[in-house]
Amino acid sequence: MSVLYRLLHVVNKIIPKKNIVLFNSFPAYSDNAAALYKYIISNRQDIVSKYKLVWGQDSEENIIRFGENNTYFVKKKSLKGFWTFLRARYVISTHGYFTGLRSGHKQTQINLWHGCGYKSTPEHIFHGDINIVTSDIFIDDAIEKFSSTIDCIKVTGYPRNDYLFHKTNHLSKLGIDRNVYKKILIWMPTYRTSKIGGIHDGSDLSFGIGSLSDADFSMLSAVLVSHGYLLLIKPHPIDSVTLQNRGPWPNIKIFTSADLLKMGLDLYELLAETDILLSDYSSVVIDYSLLDKPITMVLSDINEYRENRGFIFKNVRDWFPGPIVSDIDSFISYLNELEKINHEWELKRKDLAKKFNKYQDGNSCERVINLIFGEK
Predict the structure, then answer these.
(1) For residue 1, pLDDT beyond 70
(2) Range scoring the smallest mean pLDDT among 115-129, 143-157, 308-322
(3) For labelling, which of 150, 263, 307, 340 has a CA lying 20 to 30 Å from the CA of 74?
(4) Are the beta carbons of 107 and 93 closer than 8 angstroms?
(5) In whole angstroms, what is the distance from residue 19 CA to residue 47 CA?
(6) What is the pLDDT of residues 170-192, one digit of tens each?
(7) CA pair distance 203, 281, nearest whole angstrom
């Protein structure tokens, strides 16, 4: 810890705390923090009446309830944003409000994080007084990466995963008629090179959305059309790869996090309406397993990823809940034998789902809120 942070830590210990709950997430107003906030507004008016709810973000445009439900906005990177942090009783974040700044007297920082999954995590991350995971198998990793102790790691499930149990009709809002297609697949890869901070994981040459040529997409589209399948592609929000200005291709629809936000749609509610997930080392694999639906691993850079980023599992292939697609030919072969291949993986997928998620009931928000504030 630097000299400055030691000084700020002392200051944080001295400043009295007010009844303020400070939220923060990346991207703004999203993920586990937004899910928990929405749960409070809908189910815990006792918290709304007692605490001032503040979103600390770079912009207020995504805080849809700003000025209502005792909710306010503060610019994170400002003196007011820093002062709000020093005064907050609770700080609830997915990435850390001021990473490395420890809690003050009568202050609790809750690290909701943004994914239990396959990846090892850099050391310079948010260390909470309470750190949330989805299963006992992730406890040891959480202790190490959060420099924490076992009593600070809580197995509750992720708040955002409650949305997987909601009944919605997001597909129609995206202009998709569910009845037109036999299967709806969604492809959600993680990034290899981040457009923020220049982080490099795995291989930029690996098979994925960035490696597909227009000819590959056209061939993929033709196979999808022949089977009556629709493929949705949702790139990672910080992926340097973009599919803008490419296509369109029949039976392939591309959308971003920003697109969903503009339409007021939640990604995880949309996921619940799909039939099959295509992904790689992303934590969405762990989350999607709650749906008991097929998952396919689209990747070709296990060795490179192990060297650059690393895995929390020694034999990572043993923890894949579905087959590996590693090039355009194996992708086409998978689509042609989709039903048969998915059936072959059904038992292993169900077994891993139980290991990945201790709770499979859609009540994670309630568990986290009761852990922080007590029962209603």
Answers:
(1) no
(2) 115-129
(3) 263
(4) no
(5) 10
(6) 999 999 999 999 999 999 999 87
(7) 13
How far, in whole angstroms, is CA 213 from its chain's centroid?
28
Other Cβ atoms less than 10 A from the Cβ of 4: the count is: 10
d(CA 328, CA 221): 12
Comparison of pLDDT for 37 and 195, the residue scoring more: 37
Cα 102 from Cα 86, distance rounded (Å): 11
Torsion sign (Cα): 36, 152, 136, 96: positive
Count CB atoms within 10 A of the CB of residue 284: 23
Residue 75: both structure tokens together: 């610019």
Per DSSP, the three-state class of 52 is strand
Query: What is the C-alpha to C-alpha distance for residues 120 and 116, in angstroms, rounded to an integer?
Result: 10
Q: Give residue 124's pLDDT.
A: 55
Backbone angles phi, psi at 205, to 5 degrees: -90, 0
Q: In whole angstroms, give the CA distance from residue 219 to residue 116.
A: 34
Q: What is the pTM of this model?
A: 0.94
Q: Each residue of 346-357: pLDDT tens digit?
A: 999 999 999 999
Closest CA to 42 of 32, 31, 52, 34: 34
Average pLDDT over the chain reads 92
Taking a C-beta distance cutoff of 8 angstroms, is the pair 115, 286 a contact? yes
